Amino acid sequence: MPRTEIGTSERLLDELRQWVEHETPTTDAAAVNGLVGRAETELRAAGAAIERIPGTDGFGDTLVARTPGQGAPVVVAGHLDTVWDHGTLASSMPWRVDGAKAHGPGIYDMKAGSFFAFHSVREILRQKVPTKRPIILLLTPDEEVGSPTSRAPIERAAAGARAVLIPEPAGGGNGACVTARKGVGRFVMTVHGVSAHAGGNWQDGRSAVVALARKILEIHALTDLAGGTTTNVAPIWGGTRPNVVPPEAGCEIDCRVTSIPEGERIERIILGLAGEEDGIRIAVTGGMNRPPMVETPAITALYDMARGIAARHGYDLPKMHRGGGSDGNFTAALGIPTLDGLGCTGAGAHAPFEHILWQDLAPRCATLCELLETIE
Question: Any idea where the Peptidase M20 dimerisation domain is (predicted)?
Answer without folding.
Answer: 179-267
